[in-house]
Amino acid sequence: MFFVSALAETNRHPFDLPEAEAELVSGYNVEYSAMGFALFSLGEYSNMLLMSALNVILFFGGWQVPAFLMVLPGSVWFGIKICFFVILFVWMRGALPRYRYDQLMGLGWKVFLPISLGYVLLTVSILMSFNMLPY
């Protein structure tokens, strides 16, 4: 759920709705050239790297090395994990069709919100049943 939300937040495909409005002329790709376009691309790809790093830190152990592969240092593993998610970002661009605005809103309100609220309720009920709520 976090990865799909990161795709939507970075305006990457299939959630690149601002670009899809001017789809015939490819939006800002026509209006900006040279350094302006380079700065747009730099901003998009740095946002993609940031979301990949957040995904790795929050859900995939960050810089920690798997126990059976202690050959490489933690920073190398962190880079490998980030590269994996960047490849996923690029792969999603080629594999999925675009969403419309109503489909994106339906995904957020009808799918992600109930799943996330259900997960919060499940976590709280498990913590309450074992009397492990933090003070």
For the structure shown, list the relevant keywords.
135 residues, mainly alpha, single chain, 6 helices
Oligomeric composition of the shown chains: single chain
Radius of gyration: 19 Å
The total strand number stands at: 0
- Could you report the average pLDDT, rounded to the nearest whole number? 86
Shape: flat
* Poorly predicted runs of 5 or more residues: none
Descriptive overview:
There is one protein chain. With 135 residues, the protein is mainly α. The protein has helices at 2-9, 17-21, 28-31, 35-59, 74-95, 101-129. The model has no long low-confidence stretch (mean pLDDT 86).
Layout of secondary structure:
Elements: H1 2-9, H2 17-21, H3 28-31, H4 35-59, H5 74-95, H6 101-129
Helix pairs in contact: 1-4, 4-5
Brief rundown of the structure:
The chain has 135 residues and is mainly alpha-helical.
